Amino acid sequence: MRKSEGERIIATPSPYARQHCLYVQEAGFLKSVEPHISSRKDLESYLFFLVLSGRGTFRYNGTPHNLRQGDCVWVDCRLPYAHESSTSSPWELKWVHFYGKEVACFYDSFQGKNGSPTFAPSNPGAFNEALSALFALYQKDCAGKEILAHKYLTDIITGCLSENTEKNEKTESMKEKLEAVRDYMKTHFREEITLDKLSEAFFISKYHLAREYRQTFGITPGNDLTAIRISEAKSLLRFSLEPVSHIARLCGYPDANYFTKVFRKCEGITPLEYRRKW
Length: 278
Prior knowledge:
The chain is of the alpha+beta class. It has two domains: 4-162, Sandwich (Jelly Rolls), CATH 2.60.120; 172-277, Arc Repressor Mutant, subunit A, CATH 1.10.10.60. It has eleven helices and ten strands. The strands form two sheets. It has a six-stranded antiparallel sheet with strand order 1-2-9-4-7-10, covered by helices on one side. The longest helix has 19 residues, at 221-239. The termini are far apart.
């Protein structure tokens, strides 16, 4: 007797897709007929799936997670994982295995925010639509499928990163405090700002501030401050005739050489090269 029913497509990406896109490796849907354990590891792949109905257990890197209708899972398949449908309420799943050069960065952000590979989205229908569209692309083998697949995979990742999935939601006061920290940096970026000073000004441990800030905004306070300063510098380079040394000071960098080093790290070119190009 078959333990599950469903369909799948197996895709082989073009060299262009491997180099430039998020790309599908496999996709499909299944309906469990009787409980069985499916386990894998050491795959250069990321797996996303949505529980359409029923219940089951998903074990990731040794930790079990109980899932039900509407729950989603996103995992790095290099780590061991296994899933098993409930006996009393067999599940139906839609899933996609995918990969791409930038996926690891997005997944790190997801894990930093969520702390778990599973979440219950506020709008599971959006994920269902994206998964259905991906499957239909390859089932019909339509033209331009890899570019469209990249779009749908981006929609899935964006949905994962947009969900407020923390088990212990921050209080409104903490959210307001973090927003105040960000507003302060946007206003005072010309001044010397350190994590210690922010901690003192907003009455919050610098370690707690760094962790909560990253979980809320997806970036560390230091990197966010750098982005604010470099954005201002780019505007001044384009729309003023100020020398680089003065622009450096206006953006919170008393040392012009250090400013150039930071600018090059962010943009891949020097401030003067940026001015000439733009």
